[in-house]
Amino acid sequence: MKVVDKFDINHNDVIAYVADNVAYMSKAFTLFSAFFENCIHVTCTAHLFHLLFERVQMYNGEVHKFMQLWQSYFKNSVARRKRYIHYMASKELSTAKCPKPCTTRWTPWLRAVLWHEERHHHLDEFLAAEHTQSDSVSSRELQDLMADGTLERDFQYLGSVVPTLIAAIECQETTSVSNHHLIEKLSDLKAFMKTEQKSRTHKEWKTMWTDILSKYEEYFEWTGQPPTYSQKGLNFFRRTRLLDPKQAAELEPTISELQMIPLLKSCPVSQIQSYIDEVGSVTPSSTLCYWQNRLVRWPVLAKAAILSISIPSHSAEVERSFSAYSRVMTKLRTNMSDSTLRTCNMLHFNCII
């Protein structure tokens, strides 16, 4: 509220409250939502995907243990790292460093799985050669894990599904205007997970997908009062599909349905009706370009539509702005004032404009 008042922002111009899924953020929106008539509550879809996919790690403890041991195996041995790089180069494989299997960030653990899956069948030979030089505890533990064929089986299976999970997260970190496609993306993801659940015969994997699907329904298919962890803007994103002419042709929107989108409440009915009449007769390559080309014809409706489909379904951009501070406030700028830092960060973050 202080920021809004400081910059003299009209309360009706505040259209979205985008945050992560912690409880105090939801409580904050409940407290000040009465002041902002057009504001909707959106929670970070990428964060929800992370909560979903962290169950992959929970159900694959041996894989997680192996990757953690692999990190510690090289932690304090520069010579061992050099021997490993030489060995991988001799096999004509990439010597890229393994991503740290961190479970508190969005994709590193999944990327670490892909890294190990690509190299897994070469690691046994390397460990055997290293074992003759140093009989360390971590070396023995790694070999014991690899002696069981289930680890290779797990890596192979995870390697086949992880790319889809990473793509789902990355799709929700983009800066493009795409919230009107969110429901479609969610539907595709659910179809993929259901297929995996039905096609797997291994009990642990079937249980894993059942658990993930249960959480998916809690996060993205709730009715009534949204749970603490869920996409609070779900109903809004269902309605923004009506602003995409391609989807609207199938959904056949009415004036009352379009007016349920907050920013369209005050739009002239004649402009909304003209849009409905045009739906089905146009197939634009871009929804954003479609509305930009109609700013002269339907000035109020087109502006409201552009703002509505531009509301992000994630908070990744906010996270990136935090990271930008470390690039702006270097060791040579430690005496920078707060106001100068904020201004420089704004310029840095919007330098592409």
Can you walk through the features of this model?
Helix content is 63%, strand content 2%. The protein is mainly alpha-helical and 353 residues long. A two-stranded parallel ribbon has the order 1-2. β1, α2 and β2 form a beta-alpha-beta unit. The chain is globular and about 80 Å long. It starts with a helix and ends with a helix. The model has no long low-confidence stretch (mean pLDDT 87).
Descriptors:
globular; 353 residues; mainly alpha; two-stranded parallel ribbon; 2 strands
Strand order of the largest sheet: 1-2
Low-confidence stretches: none
Helix content: 55-70%
Global outline:
globular
Q: What does the average pLDDT come to? A: 87
How do the helices and strands line up, and which of them pair or pack?
Elements: H1 2-6, E1 16-19, H2 23-32, E2 40-43, H3 45-58, H4 61-75, H5 78-90, H6 108-131, H7 137-147, H8 149-171, H9 182-199, H10 203-220, H11 234-240, H12 245-251, H13 255-258, H14 269-278, H15 287-292, H16 299-310, H17 316-328, H18 338-349
Parallel strand pairs: 1-2
Helix pairs in contact: 3-8, 3-10, 4-7, 6-7, 6-8, 9-10, 17-18
Summarize, please:
By secondary structure, this protein is an all-alpha fold. The chain has helices at residues 2-6, 23-32, 45-58, 61-75, 78-90, 108-131, 137-147, 149-171, 182-199, 203-220, 234-240, 245-251, 255-258, 269-278, 287-292, 299-310, 316-328, 338-349, and strands at residues 16-19, 40-43. It has a two-stranded parallel sheet.
